[in-house]
Design a protein that fits this description.
N-(1-d-carboxylethyl)-l-norvaline Dehydrogenase, domain 2, nine-stranded mixed β-sheet, binds NADP nicotinamide-adenine-dinucleotide phosphate, 9 strands
Length: about 300
Amino acid sequence: MTTNTPRTTKHMADSSEADRTPVTVIGLGLMGQALAGAFLRAGHPTTVWNRTAAKAGHLVSRGGRLADSVGDAVAAGQLVVVCVSDYDVVRDLLRPLGTVLDGRVLVNLTSGTTAQARETAEWVARQGGTCLDGAIMATPDGIGTADTVIVHSGPRPVFDLYEPALTSLGAGTTYLGADHGLSSLYEAAVLGLMWGIGNGFLHGAAMLGAAGVDAAAFAPLARKGIETVTAWLPDYARQVDDGSYPVLDATIDTHLAAMENVIHESEFLGVDAELPRFVKALADRAVADGHGGSGYAALIEQFREPSGGPS
Ligand code: NAP
């Protein structure tokens, strides 16, 4: 696996204004419609295909062309973006096409696993095409805006060639490395992070709610807490990469005492205590491994191997 530092595109407007690569978008669900709309906005000749053709109506009224078949759609674009529900659908749509993919670049923005991404890229290569795999770190309303991050992995020269067109979808277009699986892996890592933050907020809101406090009152302080953790990340990352965990704020032993308080408080309020119990179980294991006096980032060692807990 590559250790490339992700490289992010900075100049969305400049690059997209200069680029008129013909593009195809296959899949016009919530995300596919946003992608095709962004290509049209940036002036790309855009061909679309969707199982339910009616979803193309507003794109056609803005200058998009509706293809009769997936094969026609692929043949129309140098750059073919696929964004459907899952990789089974990708396979079912593309496998019957045969040589139509020869010489084309397929950008697969469908969510899936690293194995699916690699296997699809190998299959596309056997048809004479080239694949970039991508993951969208945004919701449809963010597509084409300055804040949107879409990560890509696959052959660097192909990314470089199509970067201006891809940047129409978001200024945060980022190249991760040659391994096609990297985009899916980053997507999984970021989703896990977001669920962690979301669950922490919801558990906190449940505790405060049990005391009659609105979640709206909690939200600004929760945001401050998230900002504090955000500021810790560069040090955590350095410690994780170094494999040494000097204490920056509090030891894991100190955190453990606070975790016990949160469990106790949850139980006292009649709120589910599963989340803080899980967090404490991690810390207990770290202490058993001799990390009671280490900084919090030492918990990485508990994540590196399966614990044998529930799957
Ligand atoms: P969606 O609104 O449910 O759209 C699904 C798309 O897949 C539609 O175009 C649908 O066609 C097509 N499809 C499903 N089954 C099919 C089949 N058997 N044959 C042909 N086409 C089929 O989903 P979405 O929100 O656009 O998401 C698409 C991908 O983007 C997913 O992999 C998702 O994880 C990823 N993504 C989405 C978001 C988001 O916020 N929405 C964010 C990041 C990543 P029909 O219109 O005919 O049903």
